[in-house]
């Protein structure tokens, strides 16, 4: 028995099968949407079945909570405004990795490879400075190649490890390490809205550089220049110019929000139910202004779910760096995703158009990047910027 991906919705790309194969018979190869899938070398495969045993889409992760343990949910923000400014939401992950690094541990998270058009890759860090590259949301599927094996080595050497990833990545890691002592492993997952195509992300970054005639050297999603609720993007070019929220910076998010560029398995996700298999689950606390206006200062608030006793232990070590108030799973799920995203009926046509005509064509057709739409967008922006808010409000009422 071995992995055999016929239906692409049956693979989340976690790399557990490749990492577990004792004969190195599995390679992950990107398809024409940029998503990687396992391909088995028939000459090397011995049909041992280990790849199937660690596949989170096939095998079930045993529940790790004690029967008497009740998950706890909090609204959370870091006491440091500087940390929150540099974070996507409340700065919880910073407190987590600082705690592990201070004990000599290793942290695994997703970072940009800026030299490769901001490809997103999981990496290992052993210093606070190295961990800073894991901050901020990255709206693209990360590459986990080789990471599970290094985590196994760290644990075998008695090192404390913190891993952060999507729920499917976390489930793959747990299955891969099923027969390994994981007392020193702390896992953090997130409430996920699906993972977009690495290929379309690369095309997006390339197009920004072509449009401006200068290479992108930095990109930040959810930039807090004007506060957390504004949801700006920011990119910096090699020529020194910096751009905040504009129509060009929104292309990728528009395609993502239109549910056109997510991995096929995300449309029937198996990992949306709480509690997750991570010791802790993080999320943006969207809707906090409707839940607790006093707690919302427009600098970012996170939701934190404690799923296991080990998660509780880690939380106790960092809570002095946080401002916390109890909440409920029902509250955070009211504003976050508790079920799979629905597939856009135009998804197949979108990819056919991309293959035939390229990125700019689909950006204009599906992301409202046509000249007329850009003109309207910029006019609205200027009106909001220069017209007194009282006059604008009166005009809109008419």
Task: Describe this entry's structure for a reader.
The protein has about 400 residues and is α+β, with helices and mostly antiparallel strands. It has 16 helices and 13 strands. It has an 8-stranded mixed β-sheet with strand order 5-4-6-7-11-12-3-13, with helices on both faces. Strands 8-9-10 form a 3-stranded antiparallel β-sheet, covered by helices on one side. Strands 1-2 form a two-stranded antiparallel sheet. It has helices at about 15-20, 50-55, 80-85, 90-100, 130, 145-155, 165-175, 200-210, 250-255, 290, 310-320, 330-335, 345-355, 360-365, 370-385, 390-395; strands at about 25-30, 35-40, 70-80, 105-115, 120-125, 160-165, 185-190, 215-225, 230-235, 240-245, 280-285, 300-305, 320-325. The mean pLDDT is about 90. α13 runs antiparallel to α14 (about 360-365).
Low-confidence stretches: none
Q: What's the overall average pLDDT, rounded?
A: 89
Shape: globular
Strand content: 15-25%
Helicity, in percent? 25-40%
Count of DSSP-assigned helices: 16
Q: Return the structural class.
A: alpha+beta
Rounded to an integer in angstroms, the radius of gyration calculated over CA atoms is 22 Å
Termini Cα gap: 68 Å
- SS elements, strand count: 13
Listing every helix as H and every strand as E from the N terminus to the C terminus, the arrangement reads HEEHEHHEEHHEHEHEEEHEHEHEHHHHH
Strand order of the largest sheet: 5-4-6-7-11-12-3-13
Largest sheet: 8 strands, mixed
Secondary structure blueprint with pairings:
Blueprint: H1 16-20, E1 26-30, E2 36-40, H2 50-53, E3 72-78, H3 81-85, H4 92-102, E4 106-113, E5 119-125, H5 128-131, H6 147-156, E6 161-164, H7 167-176, E7 185-190, H8 198-212, E8 216-223, E9 232-237, E10 242-243, H9 251-257, E11 280-284, H10 288-291, E12 302-306, H11 309-318, E13 322-327, H12 329-333, H13 347-357, H14 359-366, H15 371-386, H16 389-397
Parallel strand pairs: 4-6, 6-7, 7-11
Antiparallel strand pairs: 1-2, 3-12, 3-13, 4-5, 8-9, 9-10, 11-12
